[in-house]
Structure formats: C-alpha cells, structure tokens
Amino acid sequence: MTHVRIHRFEKLWLGAAFVLIVAFIATIVYGSLGPGVAMVGDDGGTVNPDNPTAADNFRDPGVYQADDDSYDVYVEARQFAFSPGTSEPIRVPADTNVTFHVTSGDVTHGFELVGTNVNTMVIPGQVAQLTVNFDEARTHHIVCHEYCGPAHHAMEGSIEVVPQSEFTPPQQAAADQSEVTDT
C-alpha cells in the first residue's frame, strides 16, 4: 500500500479554493435573503399592457392626492419616455409620502431615481409600487436602467420635489386652469 503525500503548496491551494467556495455561497445567500433585497412584487397587481388605464388598479398617468399628506403617482413607461416625467416633470411636495405606481406598455424598463434607493424593474402587465418620502425640495432625475431598445440611453425624466407652500394639488391646478379658460 502506497501513501500519497500532498505537497504543502497543494494543501494551501486546496484550502484557499475551499474558502473561496464558502465565501461565494455565503455571498449568494446574503444577496437573496439580506435586508432590502427583494424581487419585484406583485403588490400593485396586473394590468393589460396594451391599455393599462382600463384596469381598476391603474389610473391615467399623473399625480393624485390620496389624503392630506400622501400622493399617488401613476407612471407609464414606453419606449423611450416616462409619462409623466419625460416631457413634463412630475411635481410632488416635500415631506409627504409619495407612492409610485409604475407599469410598462411595451417592453421591460427600469425606473430609478438617481442618487436614491428608489429603483425597480418595470415589467409589461405588472404594476410596481414604491413608496418614498422626499424630505427636501430638489430635482431628482429618472433613468431607465434596463435596456429597452436603440434609444434606451435617451430615456430619462425628472421629478421636482417642491416645498409644500409652493405645491398646488393636481385637482386644484386643474380647477384653476379651467377657470382661466372660462374667462
């Protein structure tokens, strides 16, 4: 019977490989179970991607006051724009809870507010919901972070967070506009 001797450098490399394998597995476990890491939920429900506003759980794109200190923002992503957000900025007041309801009518998009932790995939037929409280007035940029076609790099928008004293609720702004056109 012959004994096989393992050279000390081979033992060192075997030990290093074992440590790396354990570290990789630990990283995967942490990434899937760690705090703040989750897949896109179906809390927002589903819609018909061809006509998302026909569903009960998705309104016409825009800002709606839910109660005294919270707003719902409905955003539709289509190649290569956010509606609202791209052609006109989304305006919300500071120090209020803002829930974004975002869906896509064509392909998978991304919805990311640069410099914040607001970031989700926008999947056709699903409504992604994110709630955030903007504590200071400033402009946030929206970018699509999922490749959605040849003009993906130009798919951007903005959110203007304004002081509450400067914010006119959307319903009031519409009423004020109709009074101006009536006179």
Give a structural overview.
The chain is of the alpha+beta class. It has two helices and ten strands. The chain has helices at 8-33, 170-182; strands spanning 62-67, 70-78, 81-83, 90-93, 97-104, 109-113, 119-122, 128-133, 138-143, 156-162. It starts with 7 loop residues before the first helix and ends with a helix.
Order of helices and strands: HEEEEEEEEEEH
Unreliable stretches (pLDDT < 50, length at least 5) are none
Share of β-strand residues: 25-35%
Main sheet specs: 5 strands, mixed
Anisotropy-based shape: elongated
Structural class category: alpha+beta
Number of strands: 10
The overall average pLDDT, rounded, is: 88
CATH names the topology of the domain at 52-170 as Immunoglobulin-like
Return the CATH class of the domain at 52-170: Mainly Beta
CATH architecture of the domain at 52-170: Sandwich
The CATH H-level homologous superfamily of the domain at 52-170: Cupredoxins -  blue copper proteins
How many helices? The count is: 2
Radius of gyration: 24 Å
N-to-C CA distance: 106 Å
How much helicity do the residues have?
A: 10-25%
Keywords: Copper, Membrane, Metal-binding, Oxidoreductase, Transmembrane, Transmembrane helix
Transmembrane segments: 12-33
Subcellular location: Cell envelope
EC number: 1.9.3.-
